[in-house]
Amino acid sequence: MATDSSASTAAGAARREVIVVGGGPAGSTTANLLAQAGHDVLVLEKDPFPRFHIGESLLPIDLPIFRRLGIELDPRTFLRKDGAEFIDEKTGEHVVFSFAEGLEGLAPHAYQVERAAFDHALLLAARDRGAEVREGVRVSAVSPGADDVTVETTAGETMRARFVVDATGQDAFLGRTGRTIEPIKGFGKVAVFRHYHGLAPAIADELAATGNIKVLMIPEGWMWLIPLSDARLSVGLVSREATNSPEALEKAIATSPIIQRLTAGARGTEPRIIRNFSYKNLNSSGPRWACVGDAACFLDPVFSSGVSLAMLSGEALADRLGPALDAGTEADPELMASHAQRMEMGYRSFAGLINRFYDHAIVRNLFFAGSDSEQYRPGIISVLGGDLWRDDNPFQKLLLSSSAAAAAWEGQGSSPAPRARPR
User: Fold this and answer.
1) Does pLDDT of 372 surpass 80?
2) CA of 275: how far to CAs of 134, 185, 401, in Å?
3) What confidence tier does 416 reach under pLDDT thresholds 50, 70, 90?
4) Radius of gyration of the CA atoms of the chain, in A
5) Could you tell me which CATH class the domain 7-184+278-410 is placed in?
6) Taking the CB of residue 115, how many other CB atoms lie within 10 A of it?
7) Distance between CA 393 and CA 222 in Å, rounded?
């Protein structure tokens, strides 16, 4: 990210109020709410929508945001999700956490979504609320200056804005350009997954009865089983080892009685791999710019926090930025300080839970039949549901006070992340 103004190269460019780089859940949420508040917003998205994306399991905390965005999820396309199940096939242990059993105020359900359709719906909603959306536009440079921010594209266009929001997901354009991305150690490193189509009708009905995500405990990591609409199932393997591969997924599927039963007769897609997630951006805001969603932080996918935290961060940023634009204070370098503190509480809470999850002895006591499970059960469910900003959850307080969780979040640093590709 450049630090000098490029006003001379943008002299003829129209000055927008806000440019949002990236049209995924974080970017669409930010743009939608700012446009609703009457602000001039331009969204630049590199890909034509709809486009495939992983991260299909949402949390109950999203439901109030959907209402603000004017989004209604059609149950024929998006499957209701009542909770989460944790299973150890070797021991036969199986526990269900239903969102309806969380602390008071947590919505009793969430959704499993096909991200192509879900993300497209969010982007269209932002456009309907007044944001201008341009797809197929790659940003190559973002240069904040004293009076505005210059944005350049790979097509040679130059634009200016009073404020720029980096919502580029795991591309994390500003963080990787500025070399401020730090991996979080001890969490998952590689995910390999596939979708199954044409599940047997009885199996599809069984999975749709609750829509629960199933998390299978395995020695090298964990597996997800996410039911989707139209008799489909997403199956993935996450490992802390960089050697995870399609062959490892095939072996795990072949040795799992549950997966064998659920996918009998179904058609599996070719495996796909995602590497090098679990990171935080050490510098996620500054004068006239801020990062939201995965551009600011991405944790391990185990508790489905990615999309929900992305939308929550977009909502909170828009609510902070809108009044600043009205008051002309959007260049304040401390504008997003309270926003960053709020989001860090959510990130730290999930990081504490993830830290425990990768210790199978703790999982046994916390998630299965241990005493901690019963004592903290409503609080565990509320954290699993993304309800992270309340002061009456003893389990979350335990997570936030844990020295091991703090160490996992703070990390010991690492070599700088590679520079960003044009976004």
Assistant:
1) no
2) 28, 14, 30
3) very low
4) 21
5) alpha beta
6) 18
7) 27
What burial letters (b/e) apply to 119-153, b meaning 16+ CB within 10 Å?
bbbbbebbbebbbebeeebbbbbbbbbeebbbbbb
Tell me what the mean pLDDT of segment 260-268 comes to. 98
Q: How confident is the model at residue 415 (pLDDT cuts 50, 70, 90)?
A: very low
> Two tokens at 26?
């974080």
Six token digits for residue 35 = 């446009």
- Alpha carbon distances (Å) from 83 to 59, 145, 183, 232, 342: 9, 46, 29, 18, 25
Nearest Cα neighbor of 380 from 333, 152, 365 is 365
Measured between alpha carbons, how far is 97 from 367 in angstroms, rounded to an integer?
9
The domain ranges of the chain are 7-184+278-410
pLDDT in tens, 36-59: 999 999 999 999 999 999 999 999
pTM: 0.91
Q: Side chain identity at 387, as an amino acid letter?
A: D
Please name the residue that has the structure tokens 């801020």. Answer: 290
pLDDT at residue 302 greater than cutoff 90: no
138 close to 153: Cβ distance less than 8 angstroms: yes
In sequence order, what are the residues at sequence separation of 6 or more whose Cβ sits closer than 8 angstroms to the Cβ of residue 408?
A: 184, 185, 186, 187, 351, 352, 354, 355
**In this structure, what token pair is assigned to residue 108?**
């009793």
